[in-house]
Amino acid sequence: MPTISTDHLTIAYDLYGPEGAPVVLLLHGWPDNASTWDRVAPRLAQAGLRVVVPTLRGFGATRFRHDHTPRTGDSAILALDAIALMDGLGIDRFMAAGHDWGSNIAEALAVGWPDRVQRLAMLSTPPRLGGMPTPSFDQAQRQWYHWFMATRRGAQAVRDDRRGFAHIHWVNWSPPGWFDEATFARVAKSFDNPDWPAVTIHSYRARWDEAQPDPRGAWLADRVKATKTLSLPTLYLHGEVDGVNPPSTAREVPGKFSGPFKMVELPGVGHFPQRENPEAVTRHLLDLFADADSKAKGPSATRIAAGVAAAGLVAAAIGIVCTRSTTEQSSPPRGEGSA
User: Fold this and answer.
1) Bridging pattern class, strands 23-27 and 320-324
2) Nearest 5°: phi and psi at 6?
3) Are the C-beta atoms of residues 56 and 1 closer than 8 Å to each other?
4) DSSP state, 36?
5) What is the number of alpha carbons within 13 Å of residue 305 lying toward its C-beta?
6) Which pTM does this prediction carry?
7) Complete DSSP assignment for 252-307
8) pLDDT of residue 291
9) CA-wise closest residue to 149 among 165, 138, 169
10) Contacts of 218 (CB under 8 A, 6+ apart)
11) Which residues of 176-212 are buried (b: 16+ CB within 10 A; e: fewer)?
12) How does strand 94-99 pair with strand 23-27?
């Protein structure tokens, strides 16, 4: 896995697909790693897209360069990491898709750099546009781990048994049997990163004002809270049986997007759609990304169109789809899902 150095990090990343093709940035979530896209990224590349898959700070081979850099993990600072990576790779305009943490990183990118982010796909975790309201008691129960980490003893328990803490979420968030222990063990090696506990704990404390966000990203965090809607073409994918963010937490998502929008509920899928049903996820991402670059002509455009066709699935495998044109009115943003 290659790396690139930014001012604050050495970022590990994977790169797929032809140079000069439209670029897609795929962002992983928690507790997961970049391998979550292993059955999606190559298919996007085969369809003619250039795909960048970074490892987030605190995970795997990505490392802080300096001891004095705060080990923070709020969405705004993670978005700044992503921009630094794309700058380092010389990529100006791109499309972004993210799962879980990555969903809100992608959202922050679209808010902070609207001239660079062409299209947006969010998986499993609703947007935070307009700010995060205190969750209902039912949702707070599902998010017990947020509050657990807000305590001194809970945070210490996470430091003491990071793999055990991550494993219980893999068990609880998706239907039984969706993963095997060998897969989890491979992914969990990423949690051995020395900064994983600090980044994790800060991420969850900061979102409920139990810790200050990284000062470098404060402007972006404020902008996300102040932004009510986004107008870029957007796809929202959600598992029908997500154990931490059930579909009820996404009811208000369509009202946060005023442009072309599609919302898909994937039947039988839990919180990790790209792992549980990569074929359906690939199909929907290709539908979103295929015509994003109007300058794509000839072989590149043909490859992407062929990729969309090759990824075709029977309707039952794709899920329940809600689409809206650019002329629909948006409703006031609300919602409480946050993994």
Assistant:
1) unpaired
2) -110, -175
3) no
4) G
5) 10
6) 0.90
7) TGGGGB-SSEEEEEETT--S-HHHH-HHHHHHHHHHHHTTS-TT--HHHHHHHHHH
8) 73
9) 165
10) 76
11) eebbeeeeeeebbebbebebbbbbbbbbbbbbbeebe
12) parallel
What one-character-per-residue DSSP string does 216-249 give? GGHHHHHHHHH---B-S-EEEEEETT-SSS-GGG
Angle (nearest 5°) at CA 126 between 328 and 174: 130
Task: Give the H/E segment covering residue 26.
Answer: strand 23-27
Amino acid at 247: P
**DSSP code of 329?**
P
* 309/291 Cα distance (integer angstroms): 13
pLDDT tens, residue order, the chain (339 aa): 899 999 999 999 999 999 999 999 999 999 999 999 999 999 999 999 999 999 999 999 999 999 999 999 999 999 999 999 999 999 999 999 999 999 999 999 999 999 999 999 999 999 999 999 999 999 999 999 999 999 999 999 999 999 999 999 999 999 999 999 999 999 999 999 999 999 999 999 999 999 999 999 999 999 999 999 999 999 999 999 999 999 999 999 999 999 999 999 999 999 999 999 999 999 999 999 987 654 444 455 555 555 555 544 333 333 444 454 332 332 333 345 678
Q: CA nearest 9: which of 53, 51, 69?
A: 69
Closest residue by Cα to residue 59 from 14, 23, 29: 29
Q: End-to-end distance of the chain based on CA atoms, in angstroms?
A: 27
Cis omega (within 30 of 0) on the bond before 70? no
Structure-block tokens of residue 167: 């494993």
